[in-house]
Each structure stands twice: as C-alpha cells, then as structure tokens.
What we know:
Blueprint: H1 3-17, H2 26-39, H3 45-53, H4 57-66, H5 79-95, E1 101-106, H6 113-124, E2 133-140, H7 143-151, E3 153-155, H8 156-159, H9 165-171, E4 172-175, E5 178-181, H10 183-186, E6 189-193, E7 206-211, H11 220-233, E8 234-242, E9 255-257, E10 264-267, H12 270-288
Parallel strand pairs: 1-2, 1-7, 2-6, 7-8
Antiparallel strand pairs: 3-5, 4-5, 8-10, 9-10
Amino acid sequence: MTPPDYEYLRKLLKDQSGLDLSSDKQYLIESRLLPLARKCGLSGISDLVQKMKGGSAFVVAQVVEAMTTNETFFFRDKVPFDHFGDTIMPEILKTRAGRKGVRIWCAAGSTGQEPYSLAMCLKEMGAQLSGWRIEIIATDLSHEVLEKSRAGIYSQFEVQRGLPIQMLVEYFKQNGEFWQINPEIRAMVQHRQLNLLHDFSQLGTFDVVFCRNVLIYFDQPTKINVFNRLHRTTEPDGFLVLGAAETVVGLTETFKPYPDRRGLYRPNDLRAAKAPVAAAAPRFAAAAL
Ligand SMILES: C[S@@+](CC[C@H](N)C(=O)[O-])C[C@H]1O[C@@H](n2cnc3c(N)ncnc32)[C@H](O)[C@@H]1O
C-alpha cells in the first residue's frame, strides 16, 4: 500500500465511521482489506482505493464494515451487568412504576451478545416486571453484525464465552453445531442500522444507554460530540454505561460518574450547572456601568 493510499483510507475511515487510526496501522488495514479486495476480484488495496475514488458507494461501505472491530461476548466484563441488576433496574422499578415501561439502547450492539445478555437479565427478574413494556433497541454501523444479531445463532465457542451454563440451557436451543436464542428473548430486541456519527435523535429518549467499547476507536472531539448528543437522548434520571477503557472524565460535563460503580454514569443537569453563570451576568453588567 502506498503512503497516499494509506492517508486516503485513514481520512475516509475517520469521516465515515469515526475510526481514528494512528500513522502506523498499515498492517491492520492490510489484514482487513486484502481479503476484501480479493473477494471483490481486485488485485490489492490500491485497486480498492481507485474504486472508492471512482465513487463506488458499495466498496466504501464494504471497506468501512471490514475495518470495524466486532469483538463481543455474553456478559462481557460482568461488572456492567451486575450494575444493571443491583443498581439500575431497582431504581427503574421504583421511578417507572407508574408508566411500567423501560427503554434500553445498546448503541453498538455488534452481533447481539450484549443486548441479549440484558434481555436475559430482565427475563430473570420474573414477576417484578410482569405487565411492563420492555424495549431494547440494538443498533450498529455494520449491517453484517446486525444480521447475525437478528438471527441470534451462535457457535459452541461463542456460547462458551461468558454465558452461564444454566442460561444456555434455559434460553437457547441447540441445532447441530449451533445454538439459537429462544424466540421470546429474541423478540425483546429490536434492531436498527445506525452510525453514531449521524443524528440519532429519531430513536427518542432512553432510560438506559449501553455504549460500550466503541468510543475507544474515536478521537477526543468525536467522543465529546457523541457524549453531547447521548446526553439529549438519555432521560434526566437515566443511566449511561461505558466500556472498561472509556470514561467521560476530563472530556465532558454532560455525564457524571455514579459513585462506587465503575463504568456507570448519570446525566448532569446542565441547566442547573449553567444557572450560576446566568445569575452572575447582571453583576458584570452593573460593574460595566
Ligand atoms: C468492539 S464492538 C463492541 C460490542 C459491544 N458493545 C461490547 O462491548 O461487547 C464495537 C462495535 O461498534 C460498531 N461501530 C464502530 N463504529 C461505529 C459507529 N460509528 N457507529 C455505530 N457503531 C459503530 C462496530 O461495528 C462494532 O460492532
């Protein structure tokens, strides 16, 4: 790959998906895009770049998808799911007792293990949620992972990663070498293709947002931009859950860490935060006189 091809791809990926590659990630591009070039009947990455420069939206979409990292597994990192059961849902049960409804967004749900882990947690809560309207929306940039998530079919290896055996027995049906999650759990999750760089206000507001292990790929201004828009989409008394290597601290005032709960955040009331500034304004005006 020539240096201009690399620079072209770096800029394209940053603009299209937020992926912020440092100047030394040629090996990553080659390992992901050479197989794609061959699949498209092209001789190498320079040919892919020429197709993209020629305006092939199809190739651009394929390149962007091929460069996403889709690593995920059931109950990944465990702690966020403990917070979900011992902190988030007990509070939701109290504060939403009137409307009996909860809206949850998995903002980069990949192949479905994260949204289905949440669905199983809710199912395990049994009668406490009887009569409740539960919405789990799983979105992702990649069409390919969404297809797999919709199907809810996993290999033996995938169900052995993080999924307790009793949940495998309870919520999955074996079909040859594969396991399919049962229709009741599958129906709890709705899927939508969505790029976090684009407007997501049409999804409405959520009580709980899981946005884990995707912002790590973005640069700082992009993270701040996403946090600002997540703030508008999270209910004022809602929750944001980030990945183990992600935080709002030092980046934005839109969310604050939940005490003693690693990875859990709550929206800040920005109007309250701004109030002292507004109150101080007349004094400055008076001083100016
Ligand atoms: C590493 S996976 C994380 C999956 C899951 N949240 C977890 O923590 O296990 C990151 C996911 O983010 C998606 N992604 C990357 N850039 C995105 C963007 N700009 N908008 C939406 N999803 C994106 C990828 O397709 C991938 O499925």
